[in-house]
Amino acid sequence: xxxxxxxxxxxxxxxxxxxxxxxxxxxxxxxxxxxxxxxxxxxxxxxxxxxxxxxxxxxxxxxxxxxxxxxxxxxxxxxxxxxxxxxxxxxxxxxxxxxxxxxxxxxxxxxxxxxxxxxxxxxxxxxxxxxxxxxxxxxxxxxxxxxxxxxxxxxxxxxxxxxxxxxxxxxxxxxxxxxxxxxxxxxxxxxxxxxxxxxxxxxxxxxxxxxxxxxxxxxxxxxxxxxxxxxxxxxxxxxxxxxxxxxxxxxxxxxxxxxxxxxxxxxxxxxxxxxxxxxxxxxxxxxxxxxxxxxxxxxx
Amino acid sequence: xxxxxxxxxxxxxxxxxxxxxxxxxxxxxxxxxxxxxxxxxxxxxxxxxxxxxxxxxxxxxxxxxxxxxxxxxxxxxxxxxxxxxxxxxxxxxxxxxxxxxxxxxxxxxxxxxxxxxxxxxxxxxxxxxxxxxxxxxxxxxxxxxxxxxxxxxxxxxxxxxxxxxxxxxxxxxxxxxxxxxxxxxxxxxxxxxxxxxxxxxxxxxxxxxxxxxxxxxxxxxxxxxxxxxxxxxxxxxxxxxxxxxxxxxxxxxxxxxxxxxxxxxxxxxxxxxxxxxxxxxxxxxxxxxxxxxxxxxxxxxxxxxxxxxxxxxxxxxxxxxxxxxxxxxxxxxxxxxxxxxxxxxxxxxxxxxxxxxxxxxxxxxx
Amino acid sequence: xxxxxxxxxxxxxxxxxxxxxxxxxxxxxxxxxxxxxxxxxxxxxxxxxxxxxxxxxxxxxxxxxxxxxxxxxxxxxxxxxxxxxxxxxxxxxxxxxxxxxxxxxxxxxxxxxxxxxxxxxxxxxxxxxxxxxxxxxxxxxxxxxxxxxxxxxxxxxxxxxxxxxxxxxxxxxxxxxxxxxxxxxxxxxxxxxxxxxxxxxxxxxxxxxxxxxxxxxxxxxxxxxxxxxxxxxxxxxxxxxxxxxxxxxxxxxxxxxxxxxxxxxxxxxxxxxxxxxxxxxxxxxxxxxxxxxxxxxxxxxxxxxxxxxxxxxxxxxxxxxxxxxxxxxxxxxxxxxxxxxxxxxxxxxxxxxxxxxxxxxxxxxxx
Lengths: 300, 366, 367
Hints:
- The structure holds three protein chains of three kinds.
- By secondary structure, chain A is mainly alpha-helical.
- Chain A has helices spanning 2-30, 37-57, 60-63, 65-92, 101-122, 147-169, 171-181, 183-188, 193-219, 226-241, 246-266, 272-286, and strands at 127-128, 137-140, 143-146, 221-222.
- In chain A, the strands form two sheets. Chain A has a two-stranded antiparallel ribbon. A two-stranded antiparallel ribbon of chain A has the order 2-3.
- The interface between A and C is large, with 55 and 52 residues.
């Protein structure tokens, strides 16, 4: 049972990590807690359902499930990224240089807006994601892992590796790191700060969209308030790992997922959500910069 | 200063003398928005139908019936403020609320104000166990429901080990407790615990349950959690039979659970399509609003009983209406209905349904 | 050509985003709507900025009494003039004024961003509910316990949290708020979980019960006025000035000999005290409470009241609370759109008037 719970935790953690990356990248560059990020994840999940339903209606799913899924993924990710880009432009860019509190409140406003936007356009009842992969899976030393779980683990790891390479190897990644270090200096050496910020939001939203679609497939149910809890948990994961640190967000997510899973099975399942916050408070009190924070290296 | 006071008192007189329209106001309360909005909608539609019929036939006590809709969002706090609002607006009777967790605190408010309330769907026993003379329900009770479920498990399925879960609401936990109580010594309850509404990941708790090897997984709660529970149970390889109550029997349950929904059992009232007296209502409802909700017919009967009682009482005095409701027998779409001392319907309506080929069908009668 | 493209770029992007959610027909409609609205707003703005001086008028210095006396008179005569429904809303307004003032002490005076303020409100309300409904206390014996417990929780949480800098304080308070909500939801034997506690006692004075709506309104109104007077006095006392100096520059004020840590603790406890009082009044009014009333959204709503009115301004926060209670009631007709309007309104407020209705001088926040 212990290992089964670890697997359960790893899946949750992988998804938290994907969302946490968006928080951490934005915080690294703007020192802003992007409260609307959880909502972007929710939008991503809805996009997945909407596009898949569209392709099913168009008859593509019938011919090739893989093609239909791929198209749904690509379109959902593009649209969700566009949402992230627009959110930044509307709610945060006009507040660049404003006092600390203003963008935070604006972010909370955006979060409320997007949540109710989804509710008004998509309805308040749960939307069901068609069950594609079923309960089939592999048995491994008494642990059952479904194909869907394998899919989530593979996709999230691949994406994290790609992101790492992007940040370390590309010019844009370098520009992002430079901006995170010092915005003024970065702009002096010719980096277009606005462009860097937009790219950060687009990447963060794309990751959240992937997380959203995978979670929609995994649980089969989406509603307009999934963004709130997931957002807060992912944010906790980002702080846990050291906000601003990319490896921190990845490990923070995984640790959080495992802690929740083990806590729910060995202590009490009713306080499942409380473990995350208790852990957060303990970490902040003992090591406020988080597990991976403070070193500066790897920061975005 | 004095002049100001004079102006204020003039205002007071103006407001005080505001003309009242000559209608009988009936409060309809349920989850009109939020995740359970569909239930509220079905409920409101059925009441609407009853009201139109009465108004076409000349209204009530020579006045038109007017419904005021209160949205409690399935949230106890909203339910109490809706109840307060109804009392302030002078409702003659209340139809609702929908969820037990809303009906119970709201009934305190109606009881203080002496307004009769009839709920079409709140099944928790506590609602009618507090000696309130103004509280009625046309649906069954969870102790009856839990009893039927337990009897089915013992007599028909002949299982020995069960895990019992609930969603921690008044309804869900109440039902799970009644079920557990009725199992007695015949079945060993190897796990008992709660999950949160809105939660999506039940794998951790299910993994724990799996190690106890139960033959039955019973859930007291409503369809979204029920659907995900059974789906995830199958995914982690927990093959125990699944059983739940009337809150889970909704087409969305099958959509959410997919193939995993096959063979799930539910306690619910018999199919109204088989009741002759319900036929005309069902036809009218379908023509107007489409498919029936699970509680539409109860809402329709609740409305008709309330109006009939007001008519017989020949007053809008809540106390007299409540007395009439206790003593009268009404023949509605569900058949003859009369209330016992507590305000419950006399006979237990529950039978067992199952999900088969993506549809709910009647399965077993106690 | 490029100019024309720029002209439709924003409406095109927004309606494209809307397309999957709203469908083709509504997206096209939105495009048409925005293609007219956005340029019109832009034009209006340009006009307003160009002729700025014509629209800026200085608030005339009015004697405070001229504003205060009519408001007081109106409040006291309200039950004579208005329907019960309005009195009901007025009671709620008073409760939120006390709440918002409590948060204003922490956020506005001292500059600590607290995102879990509903927790103190919950602790006050639940202590009162448990003492009266389950242990049979009456209003006046339960009240001191409830107030003490919420003030104490404000103090105890602040001790560890205040060691943190920046946004971390905000995050820890948010976590604390969530944990309190989860405990209320799960400690069934004490709080009855999500089902809430009913049968909460109403206050009475010398045998006269304040249960009836109008009596209760006067009861709450008097308490609100007393609370505002006390908070105003504390604000202009030594303690209040110490708080403001910490808000403006913590290092400077500590080098002036102010023990910043203990003043921050006072601030947190004092703010939590008022939240507890509001909680008691709320529980006694509703006679029923459940964890749903004390979520993160509630903390956000209270924060919005403070921000809308003007951080740090007692009069402003009072107005902010009143607006945010009354406005949703006026918008009942469009109640589905209430929350979405609140969200959009917050963004617009931050862009166009971040200091709120009455906030004057720049208030810096460090958390």
